[in-house]
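Sanity check record (used in CI):
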Amino acid sequence: MSDELVVRARKAIPHGTARKLWVKSGGRCQYDSCNIPLWKDSLMQKDLNKSYISHIVGAKEDGPRGDAILSKELETDFENLLLLCDECHRRIDKREVENHTRNSLIEMKKKQERNIELLTSLTPDKKSHIVSFTAKIGSFEPTINFGDCIQALLPEYYPVSDNIIQLGTSNLAIKDNKENYWEIHSNQLEEVVKQQIKPLVVQEKTPHFSVFALAPQPLLIKLGTLISELSISEIYQLHREPKQTWKWQNDEDAIEVKLIEPTKIYSEVALVISLSDNVSDDRIHNVLGKDVSIWKVTVDNPNRNVLKNKQTLINFKNQIRNAYSKIKLQYPNDKPIHVFPIMPNSCAVETGRVWMEKADLSLVIYDQNTANNGFSKAIEIKNK
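Expected output for SAVED domain-containing protein:
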């Protein structure tokens, strides 16, 4: 036999295996975070097969992730194949990229195929309208990304369309320390809910809404009263640690939420909601005087990252509902509850949602603003 190098011919991928790979991948690039469709020209939008079938264990033993035995055994095995675009196909075969190990590529394949299976198994009752609400918080102009919303929804729900129902009032230039800020934003919010949410309730009877909101807390409570518990809604919370995401961290332990009742009933009533930070009684007395009964909804260790999982939000809703009911037993219908909120945004929305317009006392909501030296009256929500 000559000393020439004998090159083994690469086996063709069986049609059935290739077809299965296309189906299981949804015809999209399986590289993590790529996901581009492989059946069309992205520029001309014409049909075009631009896929590459790539190997996890290299097709050649001296190639990327190659093996003297496995390269031959797994050359046409479905579990060893990835459907990739040209760029990602080249990326994983660069030897200098250390993170493209066999295990990382196997996990990438499993994750993408699992997501496609979840998406294709969704039923009509899983449809949800994505609703965003933003308003300037001090000098901060919040934004909400559509892709982040979808990641939070899946796999429990999927978006009705690729459009967000935007209720934002961010175009209004007035600052939140001005007296007429609250009236202008509140009226604007009422109008936009009337125009964009109410027609869907009439048309679809029981639409589902997924709500993502970043705004001053009095406006979030107002939003909650407008969508109320009569609509089927999921309220999401932005988590900033360990990484920023709207997806519930349900592997975290649920936190107990407590209702602390006053020892004496005075002529005025305050409801302090202190989940993100402590609120001392003297801050309430500075606004309402000494003759006030202070009810508190709180946790053992108030902090900005207190709300991680959905069960904690449910615990919070139950105690707010409990507070409204117990306070009503102590006061006449024309007596308002003065609400002092320091809590996560989703809790603020739920504070409004569980309030019942025909049954509960009116709410006077205060805003904490250093420009106004503490709490100041923001929005009044009247009962019927």
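The chain is about 30% helix and 20% strand. If this sentence no longer matches the regenerated tokens, the check is flagged for review.
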